[in-house]
Model the fold of this input.
Amino acid sequence: MITRRPAALLASLGIIAIGVFFVALVSGSADIGVSEMLETLRGHHSNPVFATVIDLRLSRALTAFAIGGLLAVAGVLMQVLLRNPLAEPYILGTSGGAAVAALLAMILGFGRLVVDFAAFGGAMAATLLVFSIAHGTGSWAPAKLLLTGVVLAAGFSAATTLLLALSPDSNLRGMLFWLMGDLSYALQPGRSLILLVVLTASSMLLARQLNVLSRGELQAAILGLPVIQFRYLVFAAASLATALSVTTVGVIGFIGLVVPHLIRLAAGSDHRIVVPASALAGGCLLLVADTLSRTVLAPRQLPVGALTAAIGVPLFLILMSRTRATR
Done:
């Protein structure tokens, strides 16, 4: 049973999402009024702004919302695995592993399908590497897992720099923008939206198990949860979400860190609420960042990953200061 406060939070996030989508559709270098936008959304295909609103802005907005939601849900799952609110795909090296594998596939000239599989394999390999190294002494201490992830993330960052240095100059600018987050060509939101819906619904169905695992492996085992199998299922889901995000828009950080932390402060730790609220809030955050990236210096576009960091870092610092003040 969802209490009144979490229900109000979900309703508020839904209203915010609608408002953010509205702003995204009317914002841009092309001057399109509200009446023209609404006329286009009603299905007037003869409207001259149809291509701009539907084919460009709406597709890009849906992609941004889906990827933001995926990154936030992946952050929630990573934090359950490590029982640490600082865990997220960017910090743990999952995004870095996906980026290195995808860049390598691009440099070798492979097509989109191979790049996607390479990114998923890189994300899975990075996560497995973190857990295998941290488990070397037979313990699963969350602090050790987090430290291992941070070190491997730095290593993947160095590998990415090396690959960029070896890349042809003609491809360098595009790769740099992709690594910093670029939604300029992310105009096919279908698979991202499908994965977001499936992952969010599945996580909500498994919310009880996530709640138990977040309290510790021993308690989860006592209550009959198959810890090892469930752990692999969780990090496979988080790796898949991260890999799809990286191949679609590049490496974007802080969403998986800031959003779940904010939701837990507002609504507690019940994953029946944390998962859908994080999906909505993460989607809104990335959509706001993308709208700013293409309007602040229009027609020039800024890398959206830089804006998510610019929004996420001060927001996280404010949240942390308020948390300490209430203790």
Summary: The longest helix spans residues 50-82. The mean pLDDT is 80. The CA atoms of residues 273 and 315 lie 21 Å apart. The chain has one domain: 4-325.
